[in-house]
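Students often ask why we bother encoding 3D structure as a string. The short answer is that it lets us treat folding as translation between two languages. Here is a chain of 457 residues written in the first language.
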Amino acid sequence: MDWLIDRLRSFAGKSALAEGGRVYSYAELAARIEAHGSFLTARGVQPGRVAALVAEYSFDSIALFFALARNRDIVVPVTTGVGGDLDHRFAEAFVDDVIRIDDGISIQPGPPRAGGTHPLVQRLREAGHAGLVLFSSGSVGKPKAMLHDFDNLAQHYRVRPARDSVILVFLMFDHIGGINTLLNCLAMGGLMVIPDSRAPERVCSLIEQHKVQILPASPTFLNLVIISEAFRHHDLSSLRLVTYGTEPMPESLLLRLSGAFPGAKYLQTFGTSETGIAKTSSLSSSSTLMKIDDPDQEYRIVDGELWLRSKTQILGYLNAPMDGFTDDGWFKTGDLVETAADGFLRIVGRCKEVINVGGQKVMPGEVESALLTAPGVQDCMVYGEANALTGQTVTADVVLVESRPPLAAKKELRLFLRGKLDAYKLPTRINVVDRTNFNQRFKKIRRKDDALPNGSG
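And here it is in the second language, the structure alphabet:
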């Protein structure tokens, strides 16, 4: 990791992080990493320890993250909003130390566990490399603890050219997309803007204040910006690029966005926690077709499912078998794709979200895209429900622009969708709701029992 510290020092006079009304320079960041490294040594944190870092993004937490990596520790970043039994999560990641940042830095021992360490952890220690453990969302089954060789992952960003970019951080460092933004920005010498709130109004305010040029976000969050009309209250002309990922983008939403941010280009990103983030290119800003164009990633399509094999993929799971990987290293992403000319692909949805109506397959994203073109529809979410005759049936939760009698609104929507969708794709049940459900990463949750309270992140 010394190459990254040297890179930070080379940008000494530039601004690195904007947080809480203050802007920190690269010189300050490099110095804080050094100071935290000395602190870890004084507290007896030896190389190869598995350290859970419980914190939100901040100047100090980012510096501590890199100090741990430089110390060749295995970092388990955990944001403070994560629910559930943290001790159980720490045990499954073989955590030795739990580090928290409050008024200062506190270090406590990890939870007791039977037996020794995991063979993959021992392998990293013997190699003298830093590690990174990311947990899956756990939307299907228990969260999986994925172990990366962080030295190998970070090396992927070493060739980034210096660039004066201002990037707003959307995902945190407990997500592969957040790690991608963090490494990308710092390797280029850009300015990271850390929001104190991810409410649309606040994000738009920060874009205006810091003249943000790049906004990475999810389609769900971008739709919330439109619904809130926050884009009308601020000067967002600095935006040059909006990247989106984590879930399929409805084509109708992409068209809406071009009106909200007319000066920005749109790029679909793609990656998985298991394989890292791939370099992609979009056919155009108005198209959901993309191309994976990354020398470090291979892909193939098997029965409509995208498989990846990369130089940045995980060493393995610490708490689960490698069922999603083939013997020759291909990862089955669970994403269904359509192919087009010249190597372009379209992500149409997840295998687990396919609705089976009497043997006919329905992708929720196609129905949602049609619903979003209906007059008076702000937002929607489509999912399958059990049906005695057809196995499953299509259900839609719809948020209306203005309050209307539900029966009349449902009738109008059904009439609108006829002719736009095949009969078996038409929702048999439409619910008028106040909001749709999404998780703390602003990704739609189609399994309602997994939703956050009030559908907020």
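Translate back mentally: Residues 448-457 have pLDDT under 50 and may be disordered. Keep this in mind for the problem set.
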